[in-house]
Design the sequence.
């Protein structure tokens, strides 16, 4: 019985180890966000295009992107 409990605990620890995050790693949005660059083959609605433009303009202003 002790072996089964130990194996269950070990399995739980191994499976949850990948769930830990480093909160300092994603503190700055410029570290993980990037410009959206649709391909020429993409068919965009006006709303989607407006969202992409807004996203990229904010990135240009805040992060210095050059989309």
Sequence:
């Amino acid at each position: 019985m002790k072996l089964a409990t130990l194996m269950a605990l070990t399995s739980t620890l191994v499976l949850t180890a990948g769930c830990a995050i480093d909160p300092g790693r994603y503190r700055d949005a410029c570290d993980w966000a990037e410009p959206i660059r649709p391909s020429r083959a993409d068919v965009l609605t006006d709303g989607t295009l407006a969202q992409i433009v807004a996203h990229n303009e904010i990135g240009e202003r805040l992060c210095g992107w050059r989309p």
Summary: The helical segments are 2-17, 46-63. Residues 2-63 form one domain. The CA atoms of residues 1 and 38 lie 57 Å apart.
